[in-house]
Each structure stands twice: as C-alpha cells, then as structure tokens.
Amino acid sequence: MPGSVGIVSDSLVQARGLRKRFGRFEAVRGIDIDVWAGEVFGFLGPNGAGKSSTMRMIACVSPRSDGELQVLGMDPDVDGPQIRGRLGVVPQQDNLDTELSVRDNLHVYGRYFGMSRAAVRARAAELLDFVQLTDRADDPLEQLSGGMKRRLTIARSLINDPELMLLDEPTTGLDPQARHLLWDRLFRLKQQGVTLIISTHYMDEAEQLCDRLVVMDGGLIVAEGSPRELIARYSTREVLELRFPPGDEHGWPETLSDLADRVEQLPDRLLLYAADGEATLAAAHRRGVQPTSTLVRRSSLEDVFLRLTGRSLVH
Amino acid sequence: MMGEPLTFADRRPVLAGWAAVLRVVEGLWTWYRRNWRAAVVSSVLQPLLMLMAFGIGFGSLIDTSARAAQATGGVRYLVYLAPALLAVSAVQTAAFESSYPILSSFKWRRTYEAVTATPITPGQLAVGQLTWIALRLIMSGGAYLLVIMLFGAVRGPGVLAAWVFAVLCGMAFSALLVAFSAAQEQEGGAFTAIFRFVVLPMTLFSGTFFPISQLPRVVQPLAWVSPLWHGTELARGAALGTLQLSAAAGHLGYLVALLVVGVQLTRWQFRVRLTR
Amino acid sequence: MTALRELSREFDASRAALLVRVLPPGLYAGRARMLVLRSALASRSVWLAVVSGFFEPLFYLMAMGQGLGSLVGTVSGPAGQQLSYAAFIAPGLLAASAMNGAVYDATFSFFIKLKYAKLYDAMLATPLGPVDIALGEIGWALLRGGMYSAGFLGIMLAVGLIFSPWGLLALPAALFVAFAFASIGIATTSFMRSWQDFDLVQLAVVPMFLFSATFFPLSVYPSAVQWLVQAFPLYHAVSLMRSLTTGAVGWSALGHLAYFAVMATVGFLVASRRLTTLLLR
Asked: Parallel, antiparallel, or unpaired for β A212-217 and A220-225?
C-alpha cells in the first residue's frame, strides 16, 4: 500500500447524486458510488450507459453538472491537479504520442507529474519491465501492436505511482491473448495494493477482475454488488440454453415456464434459469422438447444484465 | 516472464504556475528534438530563399531605378527587405505551428488529452504551447539573423531589436490562431482559408516588399489591421535606425494588445475543449 | 452538381476502357469518378477553402504587379519585347497556381485522408480499387486546378494581360501541368510517414516558385544557375504560359510539353503501384 492517503473516509471515490449533462442530454442521471481502498471496482454496462462520462468526472477532466463527488478525499472542482497527480488513467482510446519512442513516451509523461529526470528514468525502466516492453524501449511507436500500445498506456499511467487507477474499457479491441496478458498485469497491480476502477462492457472481464461492480444502464446504476452476489441475487445457479431450428421456438416458453425460476427468450435461443440445469433439461425432454442443441452452464453477469435491463449486452 | 514487483514512492507536491508550464515546453522540446528537420526547412530555409529571390534576384532588377530608391529611402533593396522578412518569417512560422499541429494534438494524436490527465491544467498547457511557439520563433529568428549578416544585409545592432519585435509580432498572430485552431472540429479546411485569406494577403500587403503607400489609398487601412504591418514597421525601423518613438509606442501597443487577447482566448478555448 | 457529375464521368470514361484491360482485377473498377464526386461533396462543407485557391494568384498579381511593379518599370519578354511587370509575372503566377493547387490537394489533403481519416480503407471495402483512388484524387486536384486557372485567365483577359489568341491554349496547358504535378504529388505522398515529411514538399515547391523565372527573368542568374533552374518543371510551365499569353510561341513549347508528359506518366505509374502496396497489403 502507498503511505497514508490522508482522507477522513476510507472510500477513495465517493459520489452522491452525481450527474453529467451535455446540453439537453443527460449522460449520468444521479448515481451514488463508493470505491474502497485496495479493491477492483467495475462499471459494467453497454455503450452509452454513462460509464465513460462517470470515469471522466472521477479523472477530474470533466466537471460534474450536479451532485457531490470526492476523489481521494478532495473535490475535483477545487483540487483537480492534486487529485490527478495521484491517479493513473488509461483512456478508452490510446493517446500515446505516436511520434515519439516507447521510452520517450514514459519520460515525457512522468515529467508532467513533477518527477525529477532521474526518478522518471528509473521508474520508466521498472515499468517497461513490468509490461514486458524493455526490448522495444527505443522503437518508434508505429512498430508496436495494439496490445503492446495498450500495455505501454498502462505503464505510462503507472509512472507516478498512482493510488487509484482508472481504466476505461482497457481491453476493447484486443485479441484474446493480449487481453489475458493485460488482465494478468492488472491482477498483479491489485495484489500490490493499487485500487482499480475499470469500466467495461465485457462480462468476462468484469467477472475476472472486479471485487465489486455496479451495473449501469441509461445513466443510472441498476444494481450493485460483487459478481457472485449479483449472480445470486438476479440469477440462478445454473442456466439451461436451448437452441431451436428457426421458426420452431414458438410456444415453448409457455410450455416450459413452470420448469424454471425464469425463462428468457432471445432471438436465437431460450434460456431457462434453474438451480439444477441437468434436471431441468431432463424434464424438458420429457415434455417433448426437441432443441437442435442444449447447453447447461453456470450463471454469469450476462444473465444479470439481461434480467436487469431486459436486453442482451452482446452486440 | 514476470517483471519485478513495482515500488511505490512518496507523494510529491503538484507543480504550479510556470513550473508546470515549463514541463509542457519540455515535452514539446522532446518531440522537436526528434522532428526538427521540418522546422529548419520551413522557418529558416524558406525566408532565406525569399531573401535570395527578392532581395538579390528581384533587387538586381531595380537597384538602379530612381523610383525604387525613393521608395526604399535610398538603401539597397536587400537591406530594405531583410528586416521585414524577419517579421514575415516569424508570422509564417507562427502560422504553421499554430494551425495543423494544434488541431492534430486535439483530434488525431490526442496528446493534449493525455497531458491534461496529469496535474497539468488546460490553462497551463495552453500557455506552455504558446511559450514553445515563442521559443521556436526566437530560435529560427536567430538563425535567420546569422544568415542576413552573412549576406551583408545588416547595418548595426538595431537588428537585435528587430529580432525581438519580429517575435512579438509572430506571437500576436500565433495566440489568435491557436485559439482559432483549438475551436476547429473538422479536418481543417478552415486552415486553407486562413492561409490564403489571412496569412498570404498579410505577407503581401503589409509593406514587406514595398511601402504600403504604393497601394491604392482605399486598401491602405487594411494594412493597419495586420499585425505584420506593425511588426514590419518596427523591425525595419529598428534595423535601419529610422524608428520614431511615438510610432513605435503605437505599433507596440497594438501588438501587445493582440497578444493579450489571444492568450486569454487560447486559455479559454483549451479549457472548454479539454474539460467537456 | 449535375455538371460536375458529367465532367467526372467523362474524365473516367476515357481511361476506364484501357485501364480495365491493362490492370489486374481488383485494382481498378472504372469508378474513379466516385472519388471525384466524394471530394466535390466533401468540399461543399469547406467551400471557403476551395474558393480561396482562386484568390491566391490574384493576391500575388495585385501585390507584385501593382506594388513591386511600381518600382520596376518594364521587363524583357520571351521575344525581347518590353512587358509591364504585371504582364511579365501574370503567366508565371498562372503556372505556379496550377502547380500549387495540384500539389496541395495531392499532398496535404491526400495525406490526411490516407493516414488519419482512413477514408480509403472504407472505400476499398467496396468495388473501388487503388487505381480508382489514384485517378480519382488526381482528377479532383485537376478539376480544382482547372477552375482556378480559368478564373485567373479570365482576370488576365479582363485587365489586358493577354496579348495573343494563343492565350486561349493556356487553360489546357495549365490543366496538363496540374495533372503532372498532381501525379507526382500523390506518388510522393504515398512514401510519407508523418507530417514532418511535408517540409520536403515545401522544400521542392517553394524554391521552384521563387526561382523559376516567375518574378524576374532568367537573365539575372549566372549561367550555371540558369541551367539548374531549367531542370525544374515549374520553369517549363512558366515559359510555356508566358509564350502563350504574349504570343511568342515557338518550337520550344513542344519541348516543355514533352517534359510534362514524361513527368505525368512516371508520377501516375508510381502512384498506382504505391497505393496498391499501401492499401492492399
């Protein structure tokens, strides 16, 4: 853990009735948040849910329209620079300087935090090692892959030893291998006591990384808890997925509704929420259901989101 | 495959005021160190070529003409032109540095967004960017000065004052243009218009190549608006030793006023655009 | 817009037939006019920038012709006749504006579209191929250049700076010159990596503009420099225009034209090949 953070409450971020308006459009419509030291906190929701607007307010680069917000015990409107000095920000779109080398990107950025040249040099070397880019240190940025650039952005955000890191959709657009490498780095940061706030529209990412998360939809928080709690509260232990040939799915939801706690009909399949998926499948078969394929799986945040908003999160 | 665990250092105080501005300048300098060639071409070679073409090439056409001698106050055309081109080159370098690179830093490279995620405020970034442009103008002006000395187009130490006036003139224009560039959202078609309708006419009709008294009387007031005319009058007057105190005060006042307005507008635009 | 559409269609038709047969499939779909149309549509939102190109030579003519002219008196023309300074520089400005307009569109705007706006990636997802893009961009640069040249020639005619019916040919000549510069411009831009490389464009264009006998006759140079100046394309454009507007046309005009024919061919071939490697890799 970094030394004393010097605030009264334990929450690094505290929002009450937080709102953000752009003209007549309200992107964030009054939310309450508490982010505790040492945890990984997630904003989960589809594009346009208000995640990025919230992240930008917490990052002190976008003034709030209404409500209260404290970051590291300070008011962003008053102490923006002090707060930003202790944050690490990974924006949704990389904004590395493509006309500088890998190492220069870190050096230049570190200097903005008031660090001495020697401190920046030492820290940059350490960070390049951490994100496994040491052998690319002097390459121009153009030669880096998307995953490498993302890792460099994360290294850059760590240059000032932040107490709180904000990652806005950190793995969007990366291939599976690059994602897992990135998750591994973030997990190690968490182990070292860095508090992380992550926004994502990927369920697996939220389940992998977050201790606690809020589900956002239409600028509001629709649920809050740990992934496990949310699944327990808004879903069942298991889910049975039934796929039917196109045109054959009519009527089945009614026939099967009493076999499960809840039945959801998606365009291509039927989801039956039940504690015991295999037993439900057997019961369904006894009623003459003949799906083209079946799958019994554990509930995920995807199911939670579907339950909360009535919409699938996957586009 | 695993790196070493990271260490966490003590908190350090946030930089304030000019200390923060200087860090912005340093960041721009790091970029420049890797990309200086463009600057040398546009801000040193270009005015040098203008000087050779007009001062020497064109000058050879007219140096025997009595009409020309009357217009230039009797000095060789090269000597007449050189200090004015110092101001022209400051304005042209300023125009280039204050247009596409600014929009690009907002829109394509998004480097401003990265800077303002740190303790640096949009206002400090704005002032840092302008300070950097001023340093660029001082550097390229110095290089140009050396060149005109080699050409024998310098009459005395007054040219050092001309250097200062040229930078002031360039910055008066730069600050306004940076504010304008910061407000651009699109691909920058507006810059073409600025270059053709503002920079070019300013270069041609601000008394650089010939006294504005040679222009039709109705268009002469247009030159008075142009910061370059004031810069040219100051630079040429200082270099040739013909500057009068009252006129100098007027020209200086106008340029300083433009600069102050431009800096305020730039800071305001940066803040608006970077804290949406 | 309809007139523009017609124009662009004609522009394509002439080349399409030949190129479709010559080039491997996928590189050229005979639809370069789509690019010209897109540019025309896009330019409506930046009409000021488009219109402004017309004023550039005009500003020079006013400032230099009037202002500097008052210092000069007369200058010797191509056939030794005495010309007013305005009459001397006007054809030079016509040639220079054909070059500048073409080079601007083929370098700066082309680079933005190629590198930042990623316009062409989207286009290549359609039947359009890289050669459509090369031709389309050159075509648009040409169309703009043509409008500027026609406008400037109109003004020269109005203020009495055209002394011969040969002057009418200055318009097609300007288009030809613009085509050659646009081709070379696109070809060059395809090699550029970032903004910093554009100073090289400046480094080529600015000295040409200043020293190609645009503002003062070749005779002011020592003979070695005269040879050097004559190696560059703008000198040939300026000489060609000056002989046309003053009526002093000789066999040398063919030499100037040959110079641009070679330049246009080389530029176009390189541009097509480079765009293919850049966009279809």
From this structure: antiparallel
Residue A88: strand pairing partners: A165
Angle between helices C198-211 and C85-104 (to 10 degrees): 160
Q: Identify the band that residue C8 occupies on the pLDDT scale cut at 50, 70 and 90.
A: very low
Question: Tokens standing for C80?
Answer: 């030794």
Give bridge partners of residue A166 from the DSSP assignment. A89, A197
**In terms of domains, do A211 and A241 share one?**
no
Half-sphere exposure of A307 (CA within 13 A, CB side): 22
In contact, C55 and B196? CB cutoff 8 Å: yes
Look up tokens 């030159």; give the residue. Answer: B223
pLDDT-derived band at C4 (thresholds 50, 70, 90) equals very low
B77-97 vs B100-107: helix crossing angle, rounded to 10: 10
CA distance C104 to C54: 13
Token pair for A133? 């880019």
Per-residue pLDDT, C195: 67
Kindly list the distances between the CA atom of residue B29 and the CA atoms of A100, A157, B175, B270, C40, in Å, as whole numbers in the listed order. 11, 21, 19, 20, 39
Q: Which of A98, A72, A300, A66 lies closest to A166 in space, CA to CA?
A: A72
- Cα-based torsion angle of the residue sequence C90, C94, C95, C98 in order, rounded to the nearest 10 degrees: 160
Q: Do C193 and A142 touch (CB under 8 A)?
A: yes
Pick from A224, A252, A284: which residue ends a domain? A224
Q: Say if A258 falls within a structural domain.
A: yes
Q: What is the pLDDT of residues A108-139, one digit of tens each?
A: 999 999 999 999 999 999 999 999 999 999 99
Number of domains forming the structure of chain A: 2
CATH number at residue A265: 3.30.70
Task: Determine how many CB atoms are found less than 10 A away from the CB of residue A51.
Answer: 26
User: What span, in angstroms and rounded, lies between the C-alpha atoms of B161 and B241?
Assistant: 10
Average pLDDT, chain A: 89
**A77-81, A128-132, B50-54, C109-113: segment of lowest average pLDDT:** C109-113
Rounded to whole angstroms, the Cα distance separating A160 from A85 reads: 7
Q: Are B83 and B162 in contact (CB under 8 A)?
A: yes
> Do residue A293 and residue A157 come from a single domain?
no
Ranges of residues in chain B with a pLDDT under 50 are: 1-10
| Strand A11-22 to A164-168 pairing | unpaired
B neighbours by CB contacts (3+ pairs under 8 Å) = A, C
**Euclidean distance between CA atoms A187 and C220, whole angstroms:** 74
Q: Beta strands of A107-173 (E only): which ranges? A: 164-168
Contact A99/C at CB under 8 A = yes
Q: Which residues of B33-65 are buried (b: 16+ CB within 10 A; e: fewer)?
A: eeeeebbebbbbbbbbbbbbbbbbbbbebbeee
Which residues from B are below 8 Å from C199, CB to CB? 37-42
pLDDT per position as a tens digit, C175-191: 999 999 988 998 888 88
List A293's β-bridge partners, or say none.
Answer: A243
Is the minimum CB–CB distance between C225 and chain B shorter than 8 Å?
no
* C193 contacts A99? CB cut-off 8 A: no
For B101, the closest chain C residue by CA position comes to: C195
* Cβ <8 Å between C64 and B204: yes
The nearest CA of chain B is from the CA of C221 a distance in Å of 8
Same domain, A86 and A179: yes
> Mind telling me how many Å the CA of A84 is from chain C's nearest CA?
30
3-state secondary structure of A309: helix
Residue B193 to residue C104, Cβ atoms within 8 A: no
User: Could you tell me the two tokens for C89?
Assistant: 């520089």
The answer to whether position A58 is within a domain reads yes
Q: Is residue C27 part of a domain?
A: no
pTM of the shown model: 0.84
Torsion region of B14: left, alpha or beta (phi above 0 gives left; psi -120 to 50 gives alpha) = beta
**Residue C210 falls inside a structural domain:** yes
